[in-house]
Amino acid sequence: MVRVSRQGRSHRGKDERGLAAPAIEFRHVDFSYDDNKVLDDLSFQVAKGEIKIILSGSGGGKSTILKLILGLLIPDAGQIFIDGEEITGRDEAEMQQLRDKIGIVFQEGALFDSLTVHENVAYRLQDRGLPEEDIEEEVGSLLRFVKLDKEMDKLPGELSGGMRKRVSVARALIGNPRIVLFDEPTVALDPPTSGTICDLIIELRDLERVSSIVVTHEMDVVKYLTSEYVRVGEKGDIQFKDEGKKLCLTNTRILMLRDGREIFSGTSKELIESDDPYIHEFIRGTELLPEKDESQRKAVPSHSQERVLLPHSVSR
Q: pTM for this one?
């Protein structure tokens, strides 16, 4: 039975106390598939302009969290808030309005096979009836950003796996969403493409103050997202920098799950210093790849120096 509380409703962007609300909040959420409990009393927040990395082994409930945020699943218990508004129990029409404001990069890409790259990215804006010149400008900017402007007339079947993922990212950014969900964004990608995707996520955090959830099981991605940041230089150029060993990026936090429950929430520094045996083995790569086979690990490379600015980007 679904328990729904309407006391959690608040004014848009504010919590019950009138303070700025998190972009996303789970309060004591349970969810099961039949008799298999996937999430057990899960509570967490994603602040505005923050990346929340959700980390667990396979089948740990990571993707279920994204489906709950989108209203594709309904929790068995607990409450879910988006920008201070409780979404638990909303009807489909209300949820569709919410989904239009959230970007999602699915693990499989989920592109329309019969549409070209350009059409896949543009269709959401076309559904809203925007002027064609505005659509062309935004789609062109996003495809240049993901370095696929020369492939815009191709079908998904003509692209590599990495290219399809980049189209999915461009489509997720259409309409300038303030929340973007990434479901295993780098899985099965080559290192250069993985680096491009990670750089994009960092730019959204630091330049656009977009709130993101990144679902992953790859520690290389976690290390990259929690150690790199971007700033705009004096000449308007985008500069990526490493935080250094003594610093900690507090706007990128990690939530680690095991058997549907939170076993860790905090910064990368706190994760590394944890004395929990399961966490220790996980971050050393025991679950991902045997430590003795270090040469096979995928390292996320440094970013490309040549960059294209996002549409709707902050003033330079």
A: 0.81
